[in-house]
Amino acid sequence: MRDHFDVVIAGAGPAGAQCARDLAARGYEVVVLETESEDDFPRQSNKSTGGTFPSMLASFGIPDDVVMHFTDSVVIESPNEHYTQHRTGAVLEFADFKRFLVRDGKERGVEYRFDSRVSKPIVEDGEVAGVRYAGSEEVYADMVVDATGPAAPLAKELGVSDLERGNQAIGVEYEFEGVSLDEPEYADLTDAMMLRLDHQYAPGGYSWIFHTGADTAKVGVCFIQNESYRQYADEERTVDGYLEHWIDTDPRFADAERIAGKQHRGSAHIQPPGGRLSTDGFVAIGDTVPTIDPLWGEGIHVGMRSARAAAVTADHCLTPDEPETDAENVSLYDDLWHRDVAPNMDSRLLLTRLLYLAPNDRYDRLLRDLNRLDEDTLYRVNSGDKLAIARVLHLDDLPLLVEFARQRLGI
Ligand SMILES: Cc1cc2nc3c(=O)[nH]c(=O)nc-3n(C[C@H](O)[C@H](O)[C@H](O)COP(=O)(O)OP(=O)(O)OC[C@H]3O[C@@H](n4cnc5c(N)ncnc54)[C@H](O)[C@@H]3O)c2cc1C
Q1: CATH of the domain at 229
Q2: How far is the centre of ligand 1, averaged over its atoms, from the C-alpha of 88 (Å)?
Q3: Contact between residue 7 and residue 87 where contact means Cβ atoms under 8 Å apart
């Protein structure tokens, strides 16, 4: 007898673990294969700042006890300006959040296998029929889901995801106590999630301070090694070096001390999904696609939405008496992804590339513009609405746009 389930999911991140919860709630037999050990899970995969919004908590039934701190504003900073938007947010304790998803999935009947690194798909008669894991172990299923984040061993081999090394953003974050959250001449960061555009600290990317209560905060830097990076970066300085440079030179960290053991690091690809997101008997979800929002790196909520779209697709394919998991039937997932999970991904990517190409003084001007625009226009800019984006461009942006076009066309 083969070891067989309705659905096999590779990876117990927010996307994989949520997909398992949704499928188990619909009565399917699901196994999740996770490379890390159960005892200290999550270890290397405890990589995220965990900044999210109450809409995620409500949509997926996430309890408040995995939230480190509720915030009430989002701040964007440039070297000399800042913009504050009042919006409730939540900074998760990412490890507690991941453990909750696993525990809750198990209570719904999901089987978890730890120490189970997935290496390749098993393909029979042109359809994905299972996976190889933990060396030579095999498990079979009607549908297979790759939710391993940037590792993507199944999607890569099946030619579903086309993650390019040149599009990989790397990020590192430390947790601190003793941070000055209301420093004179800076924005008040009490109960705020702050993102900073400043090539001095994050060339071709951004840095952040997320308040986590009292005088503590998560402080990090992330960037892609793109054109801006090459233009603004000191090639000798690593991403950790940039974070240390910020800590050493920003007065808000003058009395700050690192909290031992509280360091997070990881990567994600900032690019459009490479063609198909699914094939016969198979879908890729979360950062494997990649689903992460290109502009601000928000990957948890969208990844979980892609998980739900995959669960809806599996339900659609497995409801008939005989499973119908041919590529055409499974492509419902692609439709749901483009329509509901990450609409306007292309224009948001364009906006991202343009943004990270701009010089520091242009960031100051952008923030002055944001302060004078109404909330509706801002919402539309952020959603990738091209007309709204045009409203934050100026005549003297022409050289920037020409450089942008040159890079896009490769001339
Ligand atoms: C430094 C940093 C800060 C971030 N901050 C935020 C933030 O504030 N807000 C936000 O919304 N997003 C943030 N993100 C992005 C967010 O963390 C990701 O988008 C999200 O974790 C993606 O979830 P996922 O389930 O797709 O993949 P992952 O979280 O990467 O999970 C993949 C899982 O698969 C496992 N795995 C990997 N390979 C294998 C294999 N071969 N076999 C079996 N298992 C495997 C891993 O151990 C892991 O458990 C941040 C990312 C980084 C790197």
Answers
A1: 3.30.9.10
A2: 23
A3: no
